[in-house]
Every structure is written in C-alpha cells, then in structure tokens.
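pipeline/complex-builder :: batch 7 item 3
reading input block
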Amino acid sequence: MAVLTDKFGRRIADLRISVTDRCNYKCVYCRTGNEGALYGDLPFADYLRMARVLVSMGITKIRLTGGEPLLRSGLVNFVHELAKLRSEDNPDPLDIALTTNGHLLADVAKPLKEAGLTRVTVSMDAVDPDRFARITRVPNGYDQVLAGIRAARRAGLWPLKINCVLLRGFNEDQVIPFGMFAREEGVTVRFIEFMPLEEDRVWSPATVVTLEEILARMAEYRPLVEIPHARSETARRYRFEDGIGEIGIIAPVSHPFCGHCSRIRITCDGKIRTCLFSVWDHDLHAEMRRGASDEQLAEFIRGVVEKKEERHHIGEPDFVPASRTMVHIGG
Ligand code: SAM
C-alpha cells in the first residue's frame, strides 16, 4: 500500500491513540476540575484494527495517550498486540511509546516493557511536592510519580523523557530545579510551551513561557550547548556544558514546526484528528460500524489525511479554538 502523505508532501508516520479521556489529575492548565470524561472509549480490539490498517499505510511510531492511559485496564495486553504489527514493506518492530502522568506507572512499567513498549514520557510540572499538588490538584502524587519514573528506568523504558508545561505565574521558577533533576535522575526534561488547548480558556500570549526565556533562565544555572538535531524533530535539544544532563524545548507557539508535522491522532471515541487545532474530526469508528473493509478504511484515512491543515494559527487574529481541548484529544 502506498505510504500516507498529505497534500503538502508531509509523510505521515506517527500515530497517537487516545485510549480514554478520563484523567486522575486535574492540572490547572489543562482541566477545569469540574468536568470529567466527555467521550466514551472503545474496546481495544477497535483501536487495534485502526492501528493495523494505519501501519499497513506506513505508520512506524505509535504513542498511547489520553486522558490518562494507565486508567484503562487491559493496556498491557493492548501493547502486546500492537507490538506484533508489521507493515508489509518494513519488517522492523514499531516504536511504541506511552505518555502518562506517571501516577500509576510504578507497578506496570515492567509488564509494559515486557509487552513491547519501547519508551515512556512522563508529564511532570514541578519537582517540589507541594507545588506539584497545587498544579495537579491531587494530594501526595509527587512521590508516586517519582517512583513511576524510577521503575520505568529500571525496566529499561529508555530514553526516559519528562515533559513539563510551564505556565507563567505557576511554575516558571521550576526551570532550574528541572535542570538539576535532569542531571540527578539521568532523564531528559523537555519543556513545552503552553498552547491554547485548555478547558478553562486561560491562555493568552502572556501566559506562555517561551523558548528564549527558558534558555535564559537555565543559563543562569549552567551553560548549555545546543545538540544538532534533525529539522523534523519537534524538540530543540541542549546538553549542559559538562556533558551531564540533557534538556529539550518544544516551542509550538514561538517556533512552530508544522512544516515537519508527521502526526495524526485517533481520539478515544475513534475519530481521526489531523492537527491538535483541528476544528473538526473524522469519524473512523463510524466507518467501522458501517461494516467497511480494511481497504475502505484505508481509503477513508487517505481522504482525511489529504485535508490535513497546513499549520496552526496560535496567536493570530484569525485563530479559531480547536473543537476539543487537549485532555479530550490525546496529547
Ligand atoms: N495524562 C497523560 C499525561 O499527563 O501525560 C497524557 C495526556 S496529557 C493531555 C498529555 C500532555 O499534554 C501532558 O504532557 C500535558 O502536560 C500536555 N498538555 C496538556 N495541556 C496542554 C496545553 N494546553 N499546552 C501544552 N501542553 C499541554
């Protein structure tokens, strides 16, 4: 089957599947704290079929996300089934990653690795227990997440990345503590610019802690050296001058990378989204319910990808908010 390419010539190789939009955290920059899940989730067999068709179309990397994906029982078995998928023309195993808040990771890191998970990214927005609780609005999470990170490392889920969203007025003073954390724990900390994808609509340009500001703050701690990276990589990478510790910065607001976007997403209720900022989605699951064959699903997907947006319009006068917020899309 021909590889999946959009009308701008971007090759689509990277799939994110949200397996639930339930979450056990109520991070202040993501959720209101009052709303729960809005969309139902599907049996794993349905996501597996979607993934199988997409792998046959050239997807090589699958990231499981949510909501909080570790809230779904059966996830280890799902990873085991995904790990068996191969495209016709590429015998290599898929790169299967997980994005999690880490709260429930300690007990499942090893089984996930054994099932075929390659890598894990843990989201963590403060390295101080009290601040962590204020951001997540859940008491006593910090130690559990730290245990999850350490269990993942022991299990060989490597490289281990920690994603930190900085929100002005909440945690921008965590830049240097995270630099220390990266060095002490041997993990890559990646700072992500806050995007207008929250339930509460609190975003404004002033709330974004930009790449330049993060670099300036970190330079007060220790000098950084940029690591050359492929143009297609979303994160700019830096190591500390003494060679110990790496950080990354993902700057979709101040330095958009849409021209290299290779992603599509499947939401927990089986819709395809071609951009985080899409104002509509495409009901792949409805095609399955109608009895479509794999070939018909592939045709549907090809038509959807053809319409992938050229870029986002964050901060521009014509910006239209996405039709779903991050927790209901799958970050
Ligand atoms: N529950 C999992 C977790 O915490 O990693 C997966 C879902 S969460 C929505 C995925 C990622 O999106 C997290 O790293 C989170 O910090 C990030 N995120 C949520 N809202 C965001 C926003 N408005 N801008 C940038 N990143 C955001």
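note: The first strand starts at residue 14 and ends at 18.
queue -> next item
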